[in-house]
Amino acid sequence: MECSITADQLKILFVDVFISVIVFSGFSFVLGIIVFDTIHPNPTMSKRTREIQRYFTIILFLQLLVSSSLWVT
Fold first, then answer.
1. pLDDT tens-digit profile of 1-48?
2. How far apart are alpha carbons 26 and 31 in whole angstroms?
3. Which residues contact 5 (CB under 8 A, 6 or more apart)?
4. Do 34 and 57 meet the contact criterion of CB atoms below 8 Å apart?
């Protein structure tokens, strides 16, 4: 059996992949900024603000872990 893909289907596939790459790179960029800010906090921030930032970063990573494990299954 031969599997034939039409030009329209191929075009839709390329558009979907392109959009997925853009969305993934955008999320990766935002995540990189969040991680960088957590690792290198602003020295003028109070200790309490740094603790809150660390807490929310941990929550973000846990949400990403759960959502990625749900996405895989």
1. 577 878 888 898 899 889 888 988 988 898 888 888 878 878 888 999
2. 9
3. 13
4. yes
